[in-house]
């Protein structure tokens, strides 16, 4: 299961320890330094919504093994299934060389004049990969340079599933635009605009020139009822996951990691665009680590973000903050960040604060109602960008209320309009003990420029960016 974490700081969940959703663990939850020594791995069986997929099944014949574009075959198969009332498209395994199965996708094979794409999703269809099947983007065509291109494009579709997928972008072969004002940051693995009743499960997206996954709206139609479960989005250039609009989005048991290249470079960026808003977002039991921006960022500038719930996640090794919520004005319209929970997470060794709330952020509950509650968050060794790393951190202090320091940062206004409950703060047991030592180096060595010579902007320079159409 992608997101079960083993960390020096253990994240606690409402219904059990991380990795045991709804089960609890084989030890006392209220023992401060109690850790599992060994336990049985559970089969991923998280209940997910049922989509109206249909019963017809079509296994694609003749998938090319010579490295040529396969997008037309996949698109034709999707249309065939739709013509038969909906159902499942199966992408089979074939040996494309070296006992591997790597099919190539031309992400510029199709266009509507505003963007290019390889695979176009349609309603009532499940796209199912056999184990070991990889879809890898072909190098882009410099004669078709355009700002937007996607391996998978879904717009205004409903009842869609992608299962067991493996998508690889073309960032390492990308031919960049020669226009100085462009960063080619909208070359995504998946662009999902105005989709509803959609599930992506057991899928990996990596090495995209833009985002791994970008979610937004199109033509006044917003995205709703989107579930990401057991998804790994890693090594992408701009974001692992962008949410520029949406309502009722659930992200479970997933990993968003090692984003770097062009700002903001977050694990998850919640940044609604224009008049769009983001409402009712859950991020549960995820790993968000090693990103060159923030782990999770909410950036509401002239827009609204309401009811965001972050639970049972390991948020670590990000260059800037672990979780950052900030707002501002656009055209004199103030952004609003209102209502959310931050429960049972571990904020560990992030470059700046583990958690930071500022601007209009209000009505958040951070931590538990009681000492050593399973709702408590764990903090250790944050704000270490310019200091030695401390490891291990075994001494626990469980404290109620706002604790100003390296782990948590709230503006003066945010301190009065949010509730900080009980949280645990871990430090080395004894500076002279063999259990505690500094690594004498920082893990953060991101370059001053990305792989195309663009400046990596600092956290305070984050600005709204185009994620959808």
Give a short overview.
It contains two helices and 38 strands. The chain has 469 residues and is mainly beta.
Query: What is the CATH top level name?
Result: Mainly Beta
Q: Low-confidence parts, pLDDT < 50 over ≥5 residues?
A: 1-35, 435-469
Number of helices: 2
Helix content: under 10%
**Total number of beta strands:** 38
Which class do the helix and strand fractions yield?
A: mainly beta
Structure, described:
Helices cover 4% and strands 40% of the residues. It has 469 residues and is mainly beta. The protein has a single domain (12-31, 41-461), classed as Pectate Lyase C-like (3 Solenoid). The chain has a 22-stranded mixed β-sheet that branches. Strands 6, 7, 10, 13, 15, 17, 20, 23, 26, 27, 30 and 35 form a twelve-stranded mixed β-sheet that branches. Strand 3 (56-59), helix 1 and strand 4 (87-91) form a beta-alpha-beta unit. The two termini are 33 Å apart.
Helix-strand blueprint:
Layout: E1 12-13, E2 16-17, E3 56-59, H1 71-83, E4 87-91, E5 101-105, E6 110-111, E7 116-120, E8 125-129, E9 133-137, E10 148-155, E11 158-163, E12 166-168, E13 186-193, E14 196-206, E15 211-216, E16 224-234, E17 239-243, E18 246-252, E19 255-257, E20 268-270, E21 278-284, E22 287-289, E23 296-301, E24 304-311, E25 314-316, E26 323-330, E27 333-334, E28 336-343, E29 346-348, E30 355-357, E31 362-366, E32 378-380, E33 390-391, E34 395-400, E35 408-410, H2 412-417, E36 419-420, E37 422-427, E38 437-438
Parallel strand pairs: 3-4, 4-8, 5-9, 7-10, 8-11, 9-12, 10-13, 11-14, 12-14, 13-15, 14-16, 15-17, 16-18, 16-19, 17-20, 18-21, 19-22, 20-23, 21-24, 22-25, 23-26, 24-28, 25-29, 26-30, 28-31, 29-32, 30-35, 31-36, 32-37
Antiparallel strand pairs: 1-2, 6-7, 26-27, 33-38, 34-37
